[in-house]
Amino acid sequence: MALGLCLLWGYGGMLSFGQTFFFGIGGYSYGVLATNFGGGGMTLVALLLALALGALAAVILGYFMIWGRVGGVFFGIVTLSATLVLAFFLGQTAGPEWRIGNARLNGFNGMKGMDPLTIPWFGDSQIYFEGTYLFYLVVALIVLVYLGLRILVNSRFGNVMVAIREDPQRAELLGYDVRKYQLVTFVIGSTLAALSGVMYTSWGQFIAPSSIGLPAAAMPIVWVAFSGRSDITAVLVGSFFILYFFQMITVHSQQAALVLMGAMMLATVMIAPQGFVVSMTRAIGRFVQRRKAPAKQA
Amino acid sequence: MAEFLQATALSKTFGGLAAVSGVDLSVDEGEIHCLIGPNGAGKSTLFKLIVGTYAPTAGSVLFRGENVTEMQPSARVRRGMSIKMQTPSIFKELPVRQNIEIALQHHVAKTDLAREEARLLALLDLTADATKLAGTLAHGQQQWLEIGMALALKPALLLMDEPTAGMSTEETFRTGELIKSLNSQGMTVLVVEHDMAFIRQIAQRVTVMHFGKVFARGSISEIITDPRVAEIYLGKTHVA
After folding, report:
1. What value does the mean pLDDT take over residues B105-127?
2. CA distance B168 to chain A (A)
3. Residues spanned by the domain of B220
4. Using CA atoms, how far apart are residues A27 and A21, in angstroms rounded to an integer?
5. Which residues of chain B neighbour A156 with C-beta distances below 8 Å?
6. Do residues B132 and B228 both lie within one domain?
7. By three-state DSSP, how is residue B212 classified?
8. pLDDT above 70: residue B104
9. B195/chain A closest Cα distance in angstroms
10. Entry pTM
């Protein structure tokens, strides 16, 4: 989710509050599909379909925003609205009439009981992704996504993406159809959020509207801003540490963790607008250079 | 044969103000055409209508026989136009080299990229500054960098809006020589300009605009000897 937002915001210049929107679409789609398909190898199909649904939603939302020339702060407002609409909608689906096939949406309490991700293996054996296996799968996915994004931002496509962030008009006048590039970027970033949603749902066998609403929607922005939106490595490292500490504090007090999150956001804006991880890396770089310089003179 | 670039009855109104009204402009293949006129004459608006950053209120633009009136700027660029804006519009936060690369990569194969990049940097006299951020260059160099980015597209028609704004006399002269040498290699050039010395240096044909309309057109020698042109530029007292 954070890596996807980094791509959108840091490289593409689109501040999206919609990461949890796609997280929710991915998570709920997986839940509904996995429940209806039954467990086993079909959960893999549920995963792929959930991703496709997330991507489709991104194409539709992105098309209207980008072709409608929604830009800057309004991009954030529209994506936030979509997120809140989805969260409120799912929140009122408590009644028994809100079901898709065998899957009840369960309103504010959330869906549960869907089968975790399973991959059919040779012969009759299957690999369940629970506990440690799921952890390794997630780590592998993060590495894959990270490497994929690295290749993407260093490619010609990445070059154009950065050009559009810097000056969309100039990019247009160099012959690039800015809207197409923005839409592709938006779909990639959003589909990554849907992937997080699927993995989250598969891990806890549970998803609720609170994973989508305002407090949740603000989180990825805090992670990315704090880490430094201009670099995916910084976002990866930063988000890992933030979440690690966040979990440690949450055990004692959830309120304290949220307050700390807010304080971190403020501190980022006031002290290190480029993000702490990026700023710290630069400071260390300068320090090392300074140490080297006198050594050369001597 | 259809004209190379043909604008017919182009108009653009902003609210009640007609910035450009009923302008016909034709540019022949292989010429350097200059668009001049006093401040507020509608030159830049006309320029933006041709480029496609403004949609016209009425009229049409034909480029190489194709109607491009409804096209996005990017689509026009892919058909062979290339644009240098009035204020240097470059990627200021990116290194000079990456600026050139973004302009080049559209149509240059990966294997030729480095060679083309080096050639352009040398042409622009920016080889030594290739790793600097574009925003840290001197103003004249930024203008050159943007000209270089426009050239990287290997355009058939180069459109320039006041390319020498803010340049020193020497830089202006060098820019003029660069434009002439590009033209001698077959590039058609349309320039919007204020600087009469620069226009004398490069122009073959000139269109003069005044109050959103075409005021006069002709060869450079006809235009500079036209007393009416001197009048709108300098005021009546100077002519008398």
Report:
1. 85
2. 25
3. 5-80+157-239
4. 10
5. 105
6. no
7. coil
8. yes
9. 25
10. 0.81
Chain A partners within 8 Å of B153 (Cβ): 174-175
Tokens encoding B3:
């004209």
The answer to whether residues A154 and A230 belong to one domain is no
User: Is A236 within 8 Å of A142 (Cβ atoms)?
Assistant: yes
Q: What is the mean pLDDT of chain A?
A: 80
Alpha helices, H only, chain B: 43-51, 73-78, 96-104, 110-123, 139-152, 169-184, 196-202, 220-224, 227-234, 236-239
Query: What are the tens digits of pLDDT across the range A41-91?
Result: 778 888 889 999 999 999 999 898 888 877 777 888 888 888 888 888 888
- Taking alpha carbons only, the member of A34, A63, A90 closest to residue A190 is A63
H-assigned helices in A38-130: 42-67, 73-91
**Does residue B181 lie within any of the structural domains?**
yes
Query: CB under 8 Å, gap of 24 or more: what pairs does A120-128 form?
Result: A120/A40, A120/A41, A120/A44, A126/A40, A126/A41
Residue contact B92–A177, C-beta within 8 A: no
Choose the closest CB to A173 out of B83, B98, B105: B83
Q: Are residues A144 and A166 in the same domain?
A: yes
Quote the domain boundaries for residue A286.
213-298
Residue to mutate among B91, B100, B149, with most A CBs inside 10 A, is B91
- Contact list in B for residue A178 (CB cut-off 8 A) is 74
Backbone angles phi, psi at B86, to 5 degrees: -65, -55
